[in-house]
Amino acid sequence: MVIPKADTTYRRAIAHYQRTRQLVAASLAPDDDQAMFLQAEGLFRYRFESGHRSTGAVFAELAASATDLPMLESVAGSLDLYALRFQVSDGAIQLWETLLDRSPKTPLRALALYRLGWAYRNVMASGFPGSSDTVFDALIAQHHDSPLAPLAAAAKKVPYKLPRTATAWSIIPGAGQMYAGEWGNGALRLGVGLIAATAVIVPVTIAYERRGDLSWDNDWPLLVSGIVGATALAIDYTNSYKDALRAVLEYNEREEAAFEDAHPDAP
Length: 267
Hints:
By secondary structure, this protein is mostly helical. It is built from 12 helices and no strands. The two termini are about 30 Å apart. Residues about 75-80 have low confidence and may be disordered.
């Protein structure tokens, strides 16, 4: 489960972390501020390629989706390290917001606001005080003489997707993927969902119409069809929701990487 040496996503992330560490040291901010900032930076830069999921993780997730047993859900999560990446932006945001609250005049304030502008695009938890646009606007207004101000103005124009919106769209299997721009992936998941729903609705309708003369010997296929359809629908819903979060995360990181390539002076 270690990160492969050839993982280009991680290599890019660690290179940016090293550059940021130098900027933080050069700021001459208090040691506590530097430590908190870099703790958040480590979470923000926790990136690696998704790779192939293990067979055990796939089967555990399928079983958890079908049965809704907490034990199996825990096993599925423990076998899929990539799922950790869905939460690291929340941790980074909490630390940077705490830093700004405790040390409002820290020399790292402009850099923290700049990082928050990107991190808020992948926020999942509720209760944080800002958003991507609001912190970028604060950086531009409060630190207009900083070299980060024009970068923040340019960053505001970079398109992004929100995990919360993808979650809302995932009430329809595949719609979250379509929102993130993965139309083929979304259409496939929607098709599976429609087939599974049909496998439930049709036998239920037939059973209702024949409710007076149903028998196990003749009509057991209706029950089997309904159970298989309901199980497939539950699996499709659960997997589509989680995959939509993955699609949003990767969409935002691609846009951020393209921005950094176009602005080599960006921290």
